[in-house]
Design goal:
Number of helices: 5
Low-confidence stretches: none
Largest sheet: 7 strands, mixed
Radius of gyration: 19 Å
CATH architecture of the largest domain: Beta Complex
Strand content: 25-35%
Number of strands: 23
Number of domains: 2
Oligomer: single chain
Shape: globular
Mean pLDDT: 94
């Protein structure tokens, strides 16, 4: 297995040596949490944390913002918004978000940097979110728990998990709200997205086969990983003219977005000459990715989309591509990607 090198966010303001991790060898055991709080506070579909031997350095902690939830203190980089650390207020333990791990050598093909031992809080999303698609990873059965082991009588049975997948695939576009709601966990970034403007003649890479729903897929590129803090970034692709503030003012995009304050908590990080990434400066949730080279579409992080029915995959609004992911060659959790594409 590869030897880990360090933990980092994309901008490098938060960096820790691999010796801080609880183990020196990959893959590292962890659980994947699907609770509403984790999704809405990060923008991911689920989160996984890697245990640390000790707290992060003072230098790293000086460069993060703390966001407190009922049990945890969650930390994200002040500059690029990457979710980096978690602190369990009950046990005192510290952990790092799995996507912040940079390996000295990329793991061998088909291997993960994280070894998912179980899925927890699968009961929070109505259709189980992404968990029912990740119950078999590298030919190993991964149990799903309604809440946590010790609180439940036992893992969710396979028949029920298949039923949850059916709920995800049968989402009805006719029963949804008039607009798609976007809101991070703290609610300081809240937006409205109108229905797709497509007709039977619409055709482009970001338009799926169902013109009543927005196209969505996972991205595994290094830049997305190190600004989200998790290894799989879920995006849906929306024309900018469809995105509004709560008072129905068009959201401004492009280079000038950094100069105009429409939503006070929405902070931007320019990760390259042509790319602007946006996150909530209060809770750290990833909100947008925009490329100035393709101004006709904005990437919206799926974890902050609020489903009327409580669906994490937001099937009433989104059509998921289960045949490909973006930048698969940069994936560091390849076995999770295989499970998602093959389930």
């Amino acid at each position: 297995m590869a030897t880990t090198n360090h933990l980092t966010c994309l901008c490098g303001a938060v960096t820790e040596p691999a010796t801080l991790l609880s183990s020196d060898e990959l893959p590292l055991e962890c659980v994947m949490c699907h609770c509403n709080t984790c999704r809405q506070q990060t923008g991911a579909l689920a989160v996984s944390y890697l245990k640390l031997r000790a707290p992060p350095s003072e230098k790293s902690l000086d460069n993060v913002t703390a966001y407190e939830t009922s049990r945890y203190e969650r930390y994200f980089c002040k500059v690029c918004g990457c979710n980096v650390f978690g602190h369990d207020k009950t046990t005192g333990g510290w952990s790092a978000c799995s996507g912040t791990l940079e390996a000295e050598t990329k793991p061998a093909k088909g291997k993960n940097v994280s070894n998912i031992k179980s899925h927890i809080y699968v009961g929070d999303p109505f259709e189980g979110g992404i968990a029912p698609y990740l119950t078999r990873i590298a030919d190993v059965e991964v149990p799903c728990w309604q809440t946590e082991p010790g609180e439940d009588q036992g893992p969710i049975k396979q028949e029920k998990l298949l039923g949850l997948r059916e709920k995800a695939s049968k989402a009805s576009s006719t029963a949804r709200d008039e607009m798609m709601q976007v809101a991070c966990h703290c609610g300081d970034v809240s937006l409205r997205i109108t229905p797709p403007p497509y007709d039977e003649h619409s055709e482009d890479w970001y338009i799926g086969s169902d013109h009543s729903r927005y196209y969505a897929r996972l991205c595994c590129c290094r830049s997305c990983r190190l600004t989200l803090g998790l290894t799989m970034q879920p995006w849906t692709y929306v024309p900018p003219a469809q995105i509004y503030t709560d008072d129905m003012q068009p959201v401004m995009f492009g280079p000038e977005a950094q100069e105009v304050v429409q939503i006070k908590a929405l902070k931007h990080y320019q990760s390259s000459d042509s790319v602007l990434r946006s996150f909530c400066s209060t809770c750290g949730a990833t909100i947008f990715y925009q490329s100035f080279e393709r101004p006709y579409v904005i990437d919206v992080s799926v974890g902050v989309i609020r489903s009327t029915f409580g669906n994490a995959l937001v099937g009433e609004w989104l059509e998921w591509d289960r045949k490909m992911v973006s930048k698969r060659d940069e994936a560091v959790d390849e076995e999770l990607i295989q499970a998602w594409l093959q389930a």
